[in-house]
Design a protein that fits this description.
The protein is of the alpha/beta class. The protein is about 30% helix and about 30% strand. The two termini are about 30 Å apart. The relative contact order is 0.16.
Length: about 220
Amino acid sequence: MRTAVAVLTEYTPCIELDLCGRRWHLERAASLEALWETMGDDEFGEDERLPYWTELWPSSIVLARWLFANRASIAGKRCLDMGCGLGLTALVGSWLGARVVAMDYEPLALRFASRNAAHNNVPEPLWAVMDWRCPAVRAGACEVVWGGDIMYERRFVEPVLTFLEHALAPGGVAWVAEPDRAVYAHFRTQLESRGWQSARLVSEQTEALYEQPVPVTVNLWELRR
């Protein structure tokens, strides 16, 4: 297991990590718990807009490493980051020369992601408030799509897969990192039934941001049609 993040025992307003051969600084709004407590009742509707974006998840670390290792495959390409959160993988992709559109459902997430581009002296991706149920990219626009830990509920499977079918260019590739959740087995079943091929590229124990007794196993999948 490679250490990228200094393990935290309490909330910090800026996450510092050594990753992909450099130091990254990620400013964030507050802890997940603090943001959760400020939410009104109207935000706990069908979409359950919980502020997961304010944390850095192990899947993003594994995905960032993969982008760095495969930078020749994304340089100059039209790329899309699904659910960019604080922006780490979008910033890594942009730093490596990809033409990145970074989407998130939450406008506040994109505000901090944009600030993080400035903090790290990285070319700004195109930040886009977007619901994957209502794609705001043209069909077949993206040569590479990636996402870290976006599949944490079964109800997300169909809209995510439909979005990928819309956004990905013919011959394009999607990379999805996920922390060995049971829901991903259902996603793979749906992939196969709709004519996709998937291959696990990485299965890696990696660190979580906060101290915990068991490392997180993250799988990185490649999806093609």
